[in-house]
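Weekly puzzle thread! Below is a chain. First person to post its structure in token form gets bragging rights.
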Amino acid sequence: MTGNPAQSLQRLKQHFAQRVINQARLVLELWQNLSSTQWGQQELVEMREAAQRLLRYAERFEQPVHVDIATQLLDVLLAIEGNGNRLSSATIETMTQLLQQLLQTGLRQGEGIGQIFLPTMLRKPIYIALQSAEQAQHLAAQLQSFYLQVCVFTDGAGLLAAMTKRHPALNIIDIDFFAENYGLELARRLQSEYESSVPILFYSQADVAAQVRLAAVRVGGQAFFTGDIEAANVLEKIEALTSVTQTEPYRVLVVDDSKAQALFTERMLNAAGIVTRIITDPTLALAELLDFNPDLIILDMYMPQCSGPELAKVIRHNDRFVGVPIIYLSAEDDLDKQLDAMSEGADDFLMKPVKSRHLVATVRNRAARARDLKARIVCDSLTGLYNHTHILQLLDDACSRAQKTGTALCFVMIDIDHFKHVNDSYGHPMGDKVIKSLALFLKQRLRRTDYIGRYGGEEFAVILPNTDVSSARQVMNEIRQRFSEVRFSEQGQELSCTFSAGVVLYDGQLDSAQLAALADQALYAAKHAGRNQVAVYTKAAELPPDAGY
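Winning reply:
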């Protein structure tokens, strides 16, 4: 019996859509590996082959945007080969832009490849092995609501067999899975027989002795949960352990009056995927700092116009750069002079000549800590999302980019419905759990190029670059529907929550404050119309200021 031709064609399209997505994921993973290694000829060959396959699959599936990105990527790789297989700051930035476009591509289209969301595809599945099959299925259903891929196993053999085919991002294992303490033995086998470094979240229905917890740590346990286990209790740990590697390269400003030395430093950093800008005149440093916005600064100690310590003092006088790490790179071998220089606002001292591995490791470690510290300053402590002030700054930046590039931009305001009732009836811990869960929900579903902030209380803000109104409404409606299906429990009580959202399209003229006010108007309209819905701002839908929620 011959199948329906239309259905066969659709299945074929879905098959190639999956191949395009998988290949895009591989290209992104290869690029992300540069954040922990240095590239040589082999890595460039692997990236070129991956880009060629992406181009081939995209052409076969008739995805012009992917074809364009893959073609440009191959052009850049060809230029790198022509430069002796050496990366430069310009090629790193170009490739980063292309990979960011790849991360965005297809996520806002209405059919085919647009139905497969890349942030989720970049994550490996979560494996669950709990003693209670009912409990495991319940947890799996909750995690799947948050766009996580989950596999549940009823015996150790099934889990071990799955490990031979694909390693997960995370294992959740009951200490007494299948038999008493068998979970620990299973974890040992994963470590020894499968050479697995996959993190494990251990679980026990009852509390366990300290020796058992110590044994859990020794076999790769990253956390230990007891009692009732549900999605809200493990989502934060899963988010931390399975998050996609930082795709934005580190940026380093090198100030050295010797151009030859500065170029040598740049080549070492470029090979590790670090974008570098060189200044041979230290008097130009402040202007370059404002323009380049580096993660870290490398200074020579002795320069004709001014010394490194003097420049470090000048930099530290600007509040904006107080937290930017400064490293001296100098031939000075007098320890007292090194320490004196360090006291002028620097964070480290490296002696010339420095080995590439030493320089790169120092720069990466210092820059990573600086980014982490900055993130803590601009992020909300409860949710990890951007705080009110910073999300509005990001909205300003997004508006400027949209105006320059002529691309679409949407801003969304979200508010949890009847949240006061949640706090009053179930307590503030339950309210915090709902807020944190919605934050994780948004992070799981939205692109890494979108910006999410906690605007205040139970209110959230989302910036969607390269997104039209129809697509913004569609994606927010899907999140709204899926979030309403999540069940929260606390001390035997269970509830579900909904939210309302207001969407506004940037018109190329409004500032961030005006855009936020219009999104708030749309949110009021959604509340006024009955809650649990998404409203798009139009002048016809404006409500009087006293309409209220």
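Puzzle host: Confirmed. Bonus trivia for everyone else. The radius of gyration is 26 Å.
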